[in-house]
Amino acid sequence: MPWKKIEPMNQRTEFVLRAMKTDNFRELCQEYGISPKTGYKWKERFLEQGLSGMGELSRKPKSSPRGLDEAVVCEMVRLKERHRHWGPRKIRKVYERLHEEAPSESSFKRVLERAGLVVPRQLRARHQAGRLFSGRKASAVNEVWTVDFKGWWHTAGGKRCEPLTVRDEFSRYVLELRAMANARGETVRTCFERLFEQHGMPQAIRSDNGAPFASDQGVLGLSGLSAWWVVLGIDLERGRPGCPQDNGGHERLHLDVERELRGCSVSEQQAGFDEWRKTFNQERPHEALGMKCPAQVYEKSDRKYKGTPEDLEYKGMESRKVAKWGSISWGSRLIFISGALAGWSVGLEQCSEGKHHVWFGRLLVGQLEEKNLSFQRTEPKAKSQRME
Question: Within its chain, how far is the Cα of 51 from the centroid?
């Protein structure tokens, strides 16, 4: 019959009992296939603890010199409770500002996970998360501002709320978060006049293709609001229809706004928006900014707002004013251009016999033919909606 398998603890017990009597310790160790160092370890443990010391001990340290004090853990949890939707890295940065030293990022993650305050991130499939926008990416502050309406929700009192958001793409600074009375172009223009007076003007503004930022009926998609931006010398950029990822950073901002501010009553609404914007700009660290806050990066634009010009001027071109119904006069006839350009002048540049390019500011909006008194619109660019 086969030999019975001897458990390690029984072998150690047998070894130490024989070791107490043997005169040749090294030979005994060799018999059991262990080194003298290991043999002496088990012999000493037997002398100190008896047979109970023959079992395996846990390798976990009894204490850690870097163990977190209860007060530190409570402070970590308190900061997380204050900013429920911020991750461990951002919470650590805030802690670091308040204290001379901060535990490691892994410590913050471990503590907050144990407290049930971290929700695992759900990664989308690669083909869904791809960034397909082909326009410019801001490399400096005030190079591109992004704008959009959040989309409406109902307040605690049942009122409809549809906040306007404006953001500097490079610094992530939220320039505006405001509950608007309505989404008409005139109302939004008043808001932008205030922003331009406070911060100066950007080089370009990126929006979607919806009203009041664009119009599917206007030439080059121009609306009254975006035409005004062109008059001020601001470039226009638009994402592709049905592709919110083209303005992904702004969409991500909207996600934070909705889950943190939805449900405010009307009386608390704008005050809550203002406080949230202050916290986002001045306290919330951003990974893309090296864990700086947007307010540490953003600065006012050098392009000062001096009010709206009376009209556009065109050097070396014939100028024609667009009437309130969107037409210009040519001889005794009226040629329709676009209602969005009403009140502004367009420039006519002869490009060939009987044909003229029609310019609105720096935008080539179409071509006018004298022979049949027709206006042919310029088609928007297929990929990038930025118009030079």
Answer: 62
Provide φ and ψ at 358, rounded to 5°: -110, 120
CB-CB neighbours of 154 under 10 Å: 11
Residue 132 has pLDDT above 70, yes or no: no
Radius of gyration over every alpha carbon of the chain, rounded to an integer in angstroms: 35
CB-CB contact of 148 with 247 (8 Å) = yes
Query: Which residue(s) pair with 133 in the sheet?
Result: none
Q: In terms of DSSP bridges, do strands 355-360 and 363-369 run parallel, antiparallel, or are they unpaired?
A: antiparallel
Q: Structure pTM?
A: 0.66
Strand 174-179 versus strand 163-168 pairing type: antiparallel
Per the CB < 8 A criterion, the answer to whether 195 and 302 are in contact is no
Give the three-class secondary structure for 204. Answer: strand
**What 8-state DSSP symbol labels residue 117?**
-
190-233 residue pLDDT tens: 999 999 999 999 999 998 888 899 888 889 989 999 999 999 99
